[in-house]
Amino acid sequence: MMKDESRTPSEQLEDLASGIRRCVSCRLHKRRRHAVPGEGPASAEIVLLGEGPGGKEDATGRPFVGPAGHYLDKLLENQGLTRERLFITNCVKCRPPENRTPRRDELKTCTSLWLEKQLELISPNLIVLLGQVATRQMLGDTATVSDLHGKLANHKGQNYFVTYHPAAALRFDWVADTIHADFETLGKLLVRPADL
Ligand code: URA
To answer: What's its EC (predicted)?
Structure first.
């Protein structure tokens, strides 16, 4: 990405958000109410990456504000983390119809136009991948949450921490147990960020 030295990183992040709100580069824009760029400071050391906006996010333009978001907030709070320290976003910025899984071409278009630029600007120490879509998108097609969850993974020089999607924890007790354990591990890692 071309760095615009006349704009601060926060301003550049906001420029990307404005572009996302106007984006019509894939079919998902047709049925969205609001695109959801993501939220958090440009200086965030941790990025949380989900799949795509759901109904509440589409209605408000804010990430993880529905039931999965409330669950996520509790997981974060248990580890003494608040949203102010994090940048929270999704692989696709517009809600897929009926909350279907984003398609490969939608993921490719959206991540190369927006997510990659957001990550380049923020340059986080750690990206927390929530669920299978985010995990495959960042770590490749053969990566699976069941193999990688609860552990640090380094891929192309970037630190990742993989866990299940909070929406899955609302549906399956075993995922809830696992995601709690994963966030405990994450909390311990973050007490000593020098280890990252
Ligand atoms: N699920 C996601 O993956 N992202 C959101 O923002 C909300 C629900």
So the answer is: 3.2.2.27
> Is residue 121 a part of any domain in this protein?
yes
Classify residue 4: in a domain, yes or no: no
Q: Please state the domain count of the chain.
A: 1
Is position 1 within any domain?
no
Burial (CB count <10 Å: 0-12, 13-18, 19+), residue 161: buried
Determine the structural domain holding residue 70 and report its residue range: 9-195
Q: What is the ipTM of this complex?
A: 0.92
pLDDT (tens digit, 9 = 90+) per residue, 144-196?
A: 999 999 999 999 999 999 999 999 999 999 999 999 999 999 999 988 665 56
Q: Does residue 139 lie within any of the structural domains?
A: yes
For residue range 27-48, what is the model confidence (pLDDT) as tens digits?
Answer: 999 999 999 999 999 999 999 9
Q: What is the CATH number of the domain that holds 21?
A: 3.40.470.10
CB of 87 sitting under 6 A from ligand 1: no
The CA R_g of the chain, rounded to the nearest whole Å, is 16
Helices 67-78, 173-191: inter-axial angle, 10-degree rounding: 40
Q: Which tokens belong to 40?
A: 């958090």
Pocket test residue of 33, 34, 39, 57 for ligand 1, highest count of atoms within 8 A of CB? 57
